[in-house]
Amino acid sequence: MLGDRHRPAFGLLSAWRGRGVGTLAQRELVRYLFTHTRVERVQATTDPENLAEIRCLEKVGFRLEGRVRRAQWRGGRWYDQLLYSLLRDELDAPDELDEPDELREPDAPDELRDESHDGSARTTGT
Fold first, then answer.
1. Rounded to whole angstroms, how far apart are CA atoms 126 and 67?
2. Sign (positive/negative) of CA torsion 41, 45, 46, 48?
3. How confident is the model over 55-104, as pLDDT tens digits?
């Protein structure tokens, strides 16, 4: 059984940003929680300057509830956070979701490619 609070975090390598991967991951996590648990509400916080994350949350269906002042200590100072939430009955139906057409691996420099095994290119390294 899930406890009262869990705090998953999402981070994407820069090559994957802007491809819909983060939106898809957040949507699938929320869908999983609402389908397989008794969670009624999911909330998320983000920095007010993180416009990409704000767009992502809104695409998934999260609604802005407000600004939480001085909610995060980072780099030696306090930062405000925006609080978003999504309720169980607000999640879009699966067939209405606009999922990315293609989630292909981003192009990587040749020195990071591993052409071993089945001959397909795989990205390696950090």
1. 35
2. positive
3. 999 999 999 999 999 999 999 999 999 999 999 999 875 544 444 545 55
Please state the pTM of the whole predicted model.
Answer: 0.68
Token duo for residue 89: 């009955």
Q: What is the Cα–Cα distance from 14 to 67, expressed in whole angstroms?
A: 27
- Rounded Cα distance between 29 and 42, Å, is 10
Are residues 100 and 19 in contact, defined by beta-carbon separation less than 8 angstroms? Answer: yes
**Contact yes or no for 71/80 (Cβ under 8 A):** yes
**Beta strand 41-46 pairing with 77-87:** antiparallel
43 contacts: CB under 8 Å, gap ≥ 6: 65, 83, 84, 85, 86
